[in-house]
Amino acid sequence: MYKVASRNESHAVQFTILCFSDLPHLQVPLFIIFLTIYLNVIFGNIAVFLAIVFDPHLHTPMYILLSNLSVVDISYTSTTLPNLLLMLSTQQKIMSLVGCITQMYFFLYFNCMEMNLLAVMAYDRYVAICHPLHYTILMSLRTCLVMIISIWIASLLETVCFPVLVAKLSFCSSNQVDHFFCDISPLLKLSCSDTTHVNVTTYIIGTVFGIGTFFIILVSYIYIVFNIMNIHSAVGRSKTFSTCASHLTSVLLYYGTIMSLYMRPTSMYSPRQDKFFSLLCIVLIPLLNPVIYTLKNKQFKDTFRKLIK
Questions:
Q1: Where are the domains of the chain?
Q2: For the whole model, what pTM was predicted?
């Protein structure tokens, strides 16, 4: 399981994912629960995506961005839950170093995509509410597609350094990852190398891009709130706010969990706490997003009825 390198250091080439080993009596119930959740995430987000694709009335920037959000939610949930289900059902919890770093990378990549998408969606709501007469110009379909392509490329550039940096670390103290997937925090905790450069990189990227996107969302909603307050009719204020309430709910859920996971020092790493917040991020948000965005949306309800018929 270990190979000896120069300077008498040992490098783990395989990891044991401890998963929920401290709950041996709950392996079967946990498998059933996570399988049910995963199927709901897949079907819920696919339903939203298909509704947008097949209904020409939903071919607007707001819904195109939402369809991309559904794809991202399916993707980053699929980087972790299928492997978790496999481990719970077979109790085979061995993962190679390459597999571990690959899983970590795609989880970070799709999380960055979600973050960037939420920022662009906030800008879309700002333009729709604060500059409705110029909406078709500022948020044309071409502009929307350019933004989506930019999000995919920017997310790639934001996260490409992490697998390179982690691959250079030595893991000689233990090969047991106290988590249910390979995340960056538990991997850094196992390393016997100096992880200062990885931590610094994490904080820089987290500050520049994470807080940067949150700032875009915050500024957009400050303008939106001021605009709504200037509407004299209470009905008008309520109707205008309802167009962005679902997005705001999604933002609060996502940023609350993601900041709890990554915006803290490695020394404060707690396996139990990280598992909890990771589950919220991986399970709760992709599960609730289709409900949040469609629950009070008449267009979606009409489209779903047509699809069912």
A1: 2-308
A2: 0.86
How many CB atoms neighbour CB 42 within 10 A? 16
The one-digit pLDDT tens for each residue of the chain (309 residues) are 333 344 434 455 788 888 887 777 888 898 999 999 999 999 999 988 988 888 888 888 989 999 999 999 999 899 999 999 998 888 888 888 888 999 999 999 998 999 999 999 999 999 998 898 889 898 999 999 999 999 999 999 888 888 888 888 887 767 888 888 888 888 888 888 888 888 888 778 877 888 888 899 999 999 988 888 887 777 777 777 777 888 888 888 888 887 777 666 556 667 777 788 888 888 888 998 888 888 767 777 777 777 776
- Domain 2-308 CATH class label: mainly alpha
Non-local (6+) Cβ contacts of 180 within 8 A are 17, 19, 20, 80, 84, 87, 275, 278
